[in-house]
Every structure is written in C-alpha cells, then in structure tokens.
Design goal:
The protein is mostly helical and 74 residues long. It has helices at residues 3-23, 30-36, 45-57, 60-73. The chain contains 4 helices and no strands. Helix 1 (3-23) packs across helix 4 and helix 2 packs across helix 3 (45-57). The model has no long low-confidence stretch (mean pLDDT 94).
Length: 74
C-alpha cells in the first residue's frame, strides 16, 4: 500500500470516529483527535506537543475505552 493510500485510509477512519462522536454527543478534544492519527515516525512538532499533553493530562484506559465504544458504533 502506498504512503498516500495509508494516509487516506487513516484520515477516513479518523473522520468516521469524529463523526460518530458528534452523532453520539461524545466530546473529543483536539488532543484526543490528534492522538487518533498519531504515529511517532511521521509526527510533526504539533503532533509531538499533543502527545506530550496527552501523556500528562489524559488517562490511557479511559481514552481507549471511549474510542473503542465509538468504533463499535461506527
């Protein structure tokens, strides 16, 4: 799979999750949305800053549970 195809697929999934969150009235912060697509290898400075905030301020298990529920409903 080409890099652009991977980027498109990733963006598609992120958009589906964000749309489902809106429909279900489940708030997602900008940091949470940034973490949906985070990849260390291709991270921008903004992505790295979001990851730092996430590690400091968010509970991994709660976040994963929230995203799992949204994915099931997508």
């Amino acid at each position: 799979m080409s890099t652009s195809a991977v980027v498109k697929a990733k963006r598609f999934l992120i958009n589906r999750i964000v749309d489902q969150a809106k429909r279900a009235d489940v708030p997602l912060t900008e940091v949470e949305i940034a973490m949906l697509g985070f990849a260390e290898a291709s991270a921008s400075q903004k992505d790295l800053e979001a990851r730092t905030v996430f590690k400091r301020d968010y509970d991994d298990e709660k976040y994963e549970s929230k995203i799992t529920r949204l994915l099931r409903d997508v």
